[in-house]
Amino acid sequence: MKKISITYNAPTVLSFVLICVAVLILGNFTGGQTTRLLFMTYHSSLMDPLTYVRFVTHVFGHGDWNHLLGNATYLLLLGPMLEEKYGSRTLWIVVGITALATGLVNYIFFPNVALCGASGVVFAFIIMASFTGFRNNEIPLTFILVAIIFIGQQVIDGLFVTDNISNMAHIVGGAVGSVLGYVWNRKPGGSRR
Question: Is the pLDDT higher at 43 or at 185?
């Protein structure tokens, strides 16, 4: 009888989620000071080197356990499939591009809003997952439906709902996922490793 072993099957996704957990624990331990200093982007001086660090690291910070668990659920659901298709390095590129894009858009267009959390990355993953059956010169119906349902809802919520959710991060993350999903799947073979 073979032994069953647990594998670290999606290193990028698992590492990303574990970093988010560690950052939240550290933030809770420091009363939120480390989160504000390193893992939340907001309109701070461009002379402060940490402003540039936070453009990327804000995706690791979360406001509380519910915020983290909501994002981690989607990351752990979609991430392993994407990591198998595209590879670990490529998924880190998606995380980095999404983080930088959402950080810059927030800094430029929403100067009074602090942003933290992985929801932009989640939306990039959601849109990229809809490209899994993509072939040249075809647009998958799943992509169209996902774009309408997820991105459309964010636009509507952004216009009509006042809450503490960054619909901008969702929309920008979805846009990043759309572009990368299309570009990386339009070639024969459809994966990038």
Answer: 43
Question: Which token pair is 27?
Answer: 């933030």
Token duo for residue 136: 């040249």
End-to-end CA distance of the chain, in Å? Answer: 35
pLDDT tens readout for residues 116-161: 999 999 989 988 888 776 666 677 777 778 777 776 776 666 555 5
Four-residue CA torsion sign, 60, 98, 137, 84: negative
Query: Is 41:98 a contact under the CB 8 Å cutoff?
Result: no
Q: How far is CA 30 from CA 25, 35, 36, in A?
A: 9, 9, 10
Helical spans, DSSP H, in the chain: 11-29, 33-38, 49-57, 65-86, 88-109, 119-129, 141-146, 152-160, 167-185
CB-side exposure of 147: number of CA atoms within 13 Å?
17
Six-digit token string for 184: 């990386």
Domains and CATH numbers, the chain: 11-185 (1.20.1540.10)
Residue 126: CB partners within 8 Å, gap ≥ 6?
74, 78, 146, 150, 174, 177
Nearest Cα neighbor of 73 from 24, 34, 126, 25 is 126
Task: Yes or no: say if 47 and 41 are a contact pair by the CB < 8 Å rule.
Answer: no
Q: State pTM to two decimals.
A: 0.85
